[in-house]
C-alpha cells in the first residue's frame, strides 16, 4: 500500500459523540478539535492508512487497563447509495449511537454485561464515506478504504469490529478484511429478509429462484420463515466456527417483522420476532470475531425512534456476545469453537 503524505489524527466529522458515552476519554476532545480536515486534498483513496479514527488510542487504553483479550469496537460506515430502493441507511450510525447511550434504556445486556464498561464496548468513529466520495473515489476503491479501515481497527488488539451500517453492501468489504486479517475463512451467520444477491433491481427475473441458485453455488445453507417453526430448535442451537477462523454475524434489521422494526427501506411482513433473533444470537456456539448491524433507515422510523432502539439493542447484545467469547478463561466466560464451516442465512 502506498503511503500518504498526510498525517491525520481525527475522527470523521459525521461521527456522533453523546456526553453519556463511556468512551469520552481525555483524548476525545483533542481529536474532535482536529477534525477540520480538507478531505478534497486527500487524493489518495487509501487515506484510511493515515486516518486511525481513535482506534490506536482506544487500543492503547484497553491494553493499559488489561484484562480483555478482545473488545467489541463500534465502527460506523454511513453508506447508503448502494441501496436498491431508499438511501436512508446512510444516516443510521449516529441514530444508533444515540439510542445505545440513551439514558432511558438499560445499560446492562441480557447476558449481564455493562456497556459502560470499556472492556465491553468502545467506539472508534466513522469511515468518512461522503467525504471520500466527494473526492471522486469510485465504489471499488471506496470498498477498499472500508476494508483497510476494518484492518486498522483489528491491528489495535484487543479491538474487534462491530460495524454500524449503512446499507448491506458494507458487509462484503468488512468480511473480506476480517478474513484477510485473520488469515483464513470465517463462518457467516446472516439474518435477513432478502438474500441481497440478485444482480438487477428492475426487470422480470425471479430473484427468489436466482437467490436459491446462488446460495447453492456458494454453499449457503438457507432457512426460510415458512419452515422456521420446524427449524427453530436447530437455529437456536447453532454451532459455527469449526475449522475456520471464527464466526461473522450480519444482522439486516429488515429480518425483523415490521411490528418490531418499521424503520427499514424494504419492509417484509411475517419476519422474525425480536426474541427469535436474540435466542439465535444468545445460544450461538462459536468464536464471534466481528459483526454488523445494517439497513436501519431513520427516515422510515417512528416518531419515537423505535427501530433505532431495536438496532441499538441488537448492537448491545452482539457486543456482549463478542465480549463473552473473548474474555480470559479465568473469567466465567469460555470460548466455544466448534461446528461446521458454512454460511447460514435466515431469511423472512
From TrEMBL:
Keywords: Hydrolase, Metal-binding. Transmembrane segments: none annotated. GO terms for biological process: putrescine biosynthetic process from arginine, via agmatine. InterPro entries: Ureohydrolase (IPR006035), Ureohydrolase_dom_sf (IPR023696), Ureohydrolase_Mn_BS (IPR020855). The keyword Metal-binding applies. Belongs to the arginase family. Agmatinase subfamily. PANTHER family: ARGINASE/AGMATINASE, GUANIDINO ACID HYDROLASE, MITOCHONDRIAL. This is Arginase. It comes from Quillaja saponaria.
